Amino acid sequence: TDLAPNPSTPPGNPELADAAPPPQAPAIIQRKDYRVPEWLVPTIDLDFALKLDATRVKSTLRVERNPHGEQGTTLRLNGDGITADSVTVDGQSTNSWRMDGSDLVIELDGDKHEIVIETTLDPAANSQLSGLYASNGMLCTQCEAEGFRRITFFPDRPDVLSRYAVRLAGDKAKFPVLLANGNEVARGADPERDGPGTHWAEWHDPWPKPSYLFALVAGELVANRSSFVTLSGRKVRLAIYVRPGDEARTGHAMESLKAAMKWDEDVYGREYDLDDFNIVAVSDFNAGAMENKGLNIFNTRYILADPDTATDGDYDAIEGVVAHEYFHNWSGNRVTCRDWFQLSLKEGFTVLRDQQFSAAMGSAPVKRIEDVRVLRGVQFPEDSGPLAHPIRPDSYQEISNFYTATVYNKGAEVIRMMTVMAGLDRFRRGTDLYFERHDGEAATCEDFVKAIEDGAGLDLKQFRRWYEQAGTPRVEVEMRHDATSGEVRLILRQTVPATPGQPDKAPMPIPLRTALFDRMSGRHGGEQTLILDDATREFSFTGFAEPPVLSINRGFSAPVAIATPTPAEDLLFLARHDDDPFARYEAMQQLVVQHLVGVVNGSVTGAALDQGRAAIGEAFEAILDDRALDDLMRGEFVILPGETYLAEQLLVNEPAAIHAAREELKAWLGINLGAQFRALHDRCSAVPYSLSPEARGSRKLKTQALVYLAPADPAEAIRRAKAQFDGADNMTDRQGALMVLCGLSGPEREEALAAFHDRYAGNALVIDKWFSLQAGSLNPKALEHTKALADHPDFNLANPNRVRSLYMAFAANPQAFHDASGEGYRMIADLIETLDPLNSSTAARFVTPLGRWKRMEPGRSALMKAELERLAAVPTLSRDTREQVSRSLD
Ligand code: 0A1
Ligand code: ZN
After folding, report:
1. Which coenzymes or cofactors are required (predicted)?
2. How far is ligand 1, taken at its centre, from the CA of residue 144, in Å?
């Protein structure tokens, strides 16, 4: 290749510019600094000569000056860790380019030019799994958010949309399958051009797209093929590509895909827009999956399932993620993001859409409970910690740190509130207008809000604060009853807590679905949606001779915390009578939360402790006996609130006390309702395996029964768990039983772990479960076990699934991670330090659990902070990890 002389780059060699970057303060990208691109790239041709350790890329860009942009003379093309082998402008090799940091800058005098750039990559050495990388002998890409610049030089920003024409050539034996976005337009073999034993394929994507949606895959893959006829009668070919041997486990993903395609037509009027829809599953992947246009790339864990290897939870996750990526074709691809601050435009909306879809496919109330559990368990802590940010952030250093529960899950809740205020029909008019107005554009959150406002006929002026302000609003509730007039006055107050960089907050409109129950009849006179849109608001109701029971934030209509405790008797009433299934569940949870918080802070002792337990026991018994409840829902009711959520309710987090109080309650329930739990385990064990809701419900309850029996009667729990494990014909039962055995001690534990490992040796996804079960276990030795597992021959730092299976499970294990010695903290900090140079975006995700030191009791707080400070002193820390560490220490 002709290496262009490059006189303008001191000291004469562009590669040196990258080799040793001078230490400098990290650049902070600000939302307000957005400028339209100076240059557009209407088309790009990419020519890949694929090889695992040396792929050559020739990129041809037709660039045009943007009439709306600044009229400078330089074209800046982003790069990251790559060098140009050659650069030509309008067919001439040129000297008028230079490297500026990692970017390639070309001086151009005209308005339209053709730029050709050649780069060489080493995919096998790409351990970051961003850009083009190798996984098990295949090649694949991950370009969101800024991976395309690791492949070639390009204006790597989502508001530059191009038509892609891609030619892939490579060894026919190693890469029999060659895939890229769009349509395959030609294929053949040209050994003279590409070398002996090669073949090639050409793919054209007719839809202009940003670079983050580019993808290619090359490898030895087999396809599960099917088809779908769209609402206008077009036949779309569907294929799910996996490694040979895995094809039998793709059926559920394929069914989920077809159901999602149909649902998006029925519910949002969205039709698929290419003749092919391809999915590829890869086992080395930093995230869950990626919505590349017409070529979604998935983590194997969200594709592969059969009853022997996947739990019911895995089946649901596959259905949800397959749908999520498919839905992005409209919410993300056809309408994309102007800049990365708008990430929630596509993610919040797409999460809402996948939640709605899963609700429609299964039990809507159970799905709502699960979604709220994730929100409270992950997003609420984020919103009250050092990494809190609005769903539309104002600044970042590294965008991959903003793929958060806030942007995704709170983003979905914010749009869900629009559906509550408008109703689904009017909301649909809003989304129709949004897609119509912005199809083919790179849009903003503001564009979305405006379209909903116009289409649904809502006034969202004040509502926009939900995009601006971080922090979970707290709502206080006061009810005043006048027995003579029968009037009830409900006084609601909101406060939005201060968050980093946002000390003062303004009130936001909070839609609260509310009902007032008559104590005698157990009924209410109709639900109303109250909008709390000021610091304080009062609502008045008439016709109540007796003070009613308040059911508020039904269906979790707003992502807020109700801060006022409810009298236990009212909670018991709601747990029995509320006709909103979420509210009923919530009353049970609240009953337990209020009790456990009291136990931990010392306000509930002696007789009050006995009374509290007795009330919870009664409520549990009623739930276990209630014939009107289905088992899936019953299964939700008997899951105690998690320790992270409990910690959120306390001013000072005392993990050991929270853990002890929760475990003691479990044991008390196991002892006092032992007969019921045994009967439950027997009843559920008799239900044969199927994917019906009834059978799934019984599997959920079966293991829950063991969870309560374990602390109450360990010997019996071991007997039952062993029988469940040995007799299991599905992974849900097997994993549930192994989890219970893992938390106890004895030869049965070791035997079951060994049997499980033997049975599934070589099945990476199941071996991940084997690691997670041990690291996440209630077993008092979980810390020791985790340490030992890091040296297990199956452990592998290069595979993100494996890393997460061990260490995320560990960091989420309150007892082990918060071991008073601080060893848990050290283990995670050591992991971050070792993993960071290999895979910085995965490493950075482990900073979060260490970041919650401020509200921790003093001993652990100091230990956590010391680990963060140790990390901050590592000079070579990546931008990803450094940003998270420094925000956590601020
Ligand atoms: N857009 C994807 C998520 C995603 C983000 C970054 C990735 O690179 C590491 C990969 C995937 C989604 O929401 O599904
Ligand atoms: Zn997404």
Report:
1. Zn(2+)
2. 6
Question: Ion ligand 2 — residues with CB under 5 Å?
Answer: 347, 350
CA atoms of 833 and 826, how far apart (whole Å): 10
Q: Please give the Cα distance from 785 to 123 (Å, whole number).
A: 35
Q: Is 142 in the pocket of ligand 1 (CB under 6 A)?
A: yes
Catalytic residues: 325
Distance 288 CA to ligand 2 centre (A): 9
CB within 8 Å of 560: residues ≥ 6 apart: 472, 473, 474, 475, 494, 510, 553
- Within 673-780, where are the H helices? 674-685, 693-712, 714-727, 731-743, 747-759, 764-775
398 lines ligand 1 (CB under 6 A): no
Q: What is the pLDDT of residues 811-842, one digit of tens each?
A: 999 999 999 999 999 999 999 999 999 999 99
Tokens of 152: 């070639």
- Structure confidence by residue, pLDDT tens digits, 542-585: 999 999 999 999 999 999 999 999 999 999 999 999 999 999 99
Q: Tell how far the Cα of 288 is from the centroid of ligand 1, in angstroms.
A: 7
> Which one, of 130, 129, 137, lies nearest residue 53 by Cα?
137
Asked whether the beta carbons of 609 and 599 are under 8 A apart, the reply is yes
Tokens of residue 725, six digits? 């494990």
3-class secondary structure, 104: strand
The pLDDT value given to residue 6: 42
Alpha helices in 195-286 (DSSP H): 251-268
Report the alpha-carbon distance of residue 703 to residue 721 in Å, rounded: 8
pLDDT digits (tens, 9 = 90+) for 599-648: 999 999 999 999 999 999 999 999 999 999 999 999 999 999 999 999 99
Expressed in angstroms and rounded, the spacing between residue 474 Cα and the centre of ligand 2 is 28
286 close to ligand 1 (CB < 6 Angstrom): yes
What is the spatial distance between Cα 97 and Cα 7, in angstroms, rounded to a whole number? 9
| Ligand in closest contact with the CA of 322 | 1
Q: What is the pLDDT of residue 15?
A: 41
* Diameter over CA atoms, the chain: 97
Supply the ipTM of this predicted assembly. Answer: 0.98
Q: Is 260 in the pocket of ligand 1 (CB under 6 A)?
A: no
CA-to-CA distance for 723 and 97, rounded, in angstroms? 71
Which residue owns the Cα nearest ligand 1 atom 5? 144
Question: The tokens of 772 are what?
Answer: 């997670």
Tokens (6 digits) for 677 = 């739990």
Q: What is the pLDDT of residues 460-476, one digit of tens each?
A: 999 999 999 999 999 99
C-alpha distances out from residue 151 to 140, 219, 446, Å: 11, 18, 32
Atom of ligand 1 nearest to the CA of 841: 9
